Amino acid sequence: MEGLFEKIKEIYDLVEVVSNYVRLKRVGKNFVGLCPFHSEKTPSFVVSPEKQIFKCFGCGESGDVVTFYMKIKGLSFKEAILELAEKAGIYVEEKIFLEKRKENELVSLAYKVAKFYHHLLFFHPGAKEGREYLLERGLSEETIKHFLLGFAPQEGRVLTSYLRTSKEEFKHAEELGLIKQVQDGSFVDLFKFRIIFPVFNSKGECVGFGGRALVKEDEPKYLNTPESKIYKKSEILYGFYQAKEYIKKEKTCFLVEGYFDFLSFWEAGIRNTVATCGTALTPNHVKILKGLSEEILVCYDGDEAGKKATVRAVSLFVKEGILPKCVVLPEGEDPDSFVQKIKMNSSEIKEKIKDLTQDGISFVASFFQDKFKQNPSKAYQELIEVFQGIEDPFLKKKVAKELSFKLDLSETEILKSLSKKEVSKKPAILISSSEKNSAEPREDSCLRMIAQYLVNYPQDLEILEESGLSKYLEVCVSKYAVFLKKLIESLKKGLGELSCVSDPEFQSILSDLLFSPPFESREEVLKDIKSFLQKSLIKLELKKLAESIKNLENIGAKEEKNQYLCLLKSTLLNKVCGLDKVDN
């Protein structure tokens, strides 16, 4: 796939591709236009023909030709690569072809199963209870058919029997988790006496399933097929394929948590809605919605669990530069029950929802203030942790300003708190000493400088390697350290500095570095980097020695060994001092 990625970038010119969707105007060396990913009146979308990258200085979207095609078409990285390859008439290597063929077979089988369960809902003798249940939940036959809702009978081996005639399909069904082997060696269906919800990807292909129990005693209430080659839960939102055009049109998206929450909104005419399915909201989900909608309304259950999930959602969105709105439903209500109770048309429902909507900052602040009424300090700590990690300076300023007003605290102090390193509270995760110190401001700043230098002067990689760059990166875990490791790997393979961005995670980093102002003096920057690396490696040695000395003291080692280690430590300290004098 990496070789194909390189071919795609060689063949396609970014300016030409973008021009199919955006009206561009040349300004100096670059082209500018109105960003296709958010609404704006003043152009802030910049395309560099020289570097073959784009960046919007309004919403922060950035990347290369593949990233642009992914975002504009709503595709995954692999889907975009294969589609662009097909358009260009590029021969796709046999391995990729076979992999794609296997995926196509799985998708084909999944759709066949969806149609099978859908057929059973209307024609199986035992499906009457399922049909009545869906009607009781307020779903019309039109909606049931539109989303291919189905029914799994009580027998538990209906699908297994249906697929017996094809060994290949049977194998695929097992791979998708639709059937499973039991102790006696026979196979049974995953779903038994359940309503079936087929799950579709962004291209409208069936990739997974959810099942809702029709008997209260059956546990779990909701059962989902596992992840597979075609079903990545962290990347798929239920209803996205059907809703995406409505979201684009209205520039607003409602986010709910369950299948029925989504279907009730759809039935009520609120078509710009998506739901997570079988997993909590993930950063990937947020990125998908970010590229499609200007406004996000999180509409989860009105109970404590729903409010906690809403707080978590706000935290994920703000880290991507989006401040969502939160719909606060009455205690005990969920989106499905709320819509069912009020029985209004879509416009009236939206007005009702508007009355219950708060901005994300106010919602989170109120949540923790109510939760920790007797402990304002704890409430503040929890609040700050939700909003830490915001990179967008304008959003960070807005958060600080609103929190300052709500909490009656200094905006400057809140900004300081938001800028501090985020500390994990999870006791199960052990953080090594190197990890704890990896994101200190000065170190992060230096790593960014090294990354910018190497992107602009890749020919100097050998010089930096001789200064110990790779050795130093072994103990670093910040985003720039991870980026540098990828960059070095690409350069050593002779692929060029842009190859490391086949992973979308690094797109924005590379764009920021390439669009950064040039260094005033290349020689001075190189000198500073070499000095930083030398000092840092010496300090790491000092740290190891200090730990060794401490260990020897604990076990009562001979004094001579301690003296020897102390001497080494003293020597290293002298080296650091010597470096400082040279710098000055």
Automatic annotation (TrEMBL):
Signal peptide per UniProt: none
Superkingdom, natural source: Bacteria
Gene field: dnaG
Membership in a protein family: Belongs to the DnaG primase family.
Domain Toprim stretches: 251-343
Note describing how the cofactor binds: Binds 1 zinc ion per monomer.
Organism of derivation: Thermodesulfobacterium commune
Required cofactor(s): Zn(2+)
The protein's name in its UniProt record: DNA primase
Coiled-coil residues: 535-562
Entry remark concerning the domains of this protein: Contains an N-terminal zinc-binding domain, a central core domain that contains the primase activity, and a C-terminal DnaB-binding domain.
GO cellular component, one term: cytoplasm
Assembly description: Monomer. Interacts with DnaB.
UniProtKB keywords: Coiled coil, DNA replication, DNA-binding, DNA-directed RNA polymerase, Magnesium, Metal-binding, Nucleotidyltransferase, Primosome, Transcription, Transferase, Zinc, Zinc-finger
